[in-house]
Amino acid sequence: MSSEYHNVPGGALRLKGDNPNKIEKKKRKNKGKDKEKLIKYAKEIIEEESETQVIRVVTKTEAEKKFEEIQKKRLDEKVAKAARKSHKERVAELNRKLEEMTEHYDIPKVGPG
């Protein structure tokens, strides 16, 4: 062996706070007790909620009432505008728009000629 490896310590890697003499035991959980506690807790919550039910009354402000009124009015105008045109007129308008559009698959003319 060369002298470069002479000072290297051997053995297993130890982490900070790790005691090599300490033997850890696995903790077992009592599943039955946990389930019983959860069931008991859930029953208590259900009983509390049934005793203290609160009914909320939501009142709207003037601004909210006015906003909803304007929204309803705009919706009515939109529906009336859509009802003015027949299906045939809408199809004709769509076809006219499509004819005016440039076709994306056309080969662009580049350069002279």
What keyword list fits this structure?
DUF1754-domain-containing protein; mainly alpha; coiled coil; flat; 3 helices; 113 residues
Structure, described:
The structure is a single chain. This protein is an all-alpha fold and 113 residues long. It has a domain at 62-100. It is built from three helices and no strands. It has helices at 31-51, 62-84, 87-100. It is flat and about 90 Å long. The N and C termini lie far apart (83 Å). The mean pLDDT is 79.
Topology record:
Layout: H1 31-51, H2 62-84, H3 87-100
Instruction: Return residue spans where pLDDT drops below 50 for at least 5 consecutive residues.
Output: none
Number of helices: 3
Distance between the termini: 83 Å
What is the tally of beta strands? 0
Task: Give a summary of the structure in a few sentences.
The chain is an all-alpha fold. The protein has helices spanning 31-51, 62-84, 87-100.
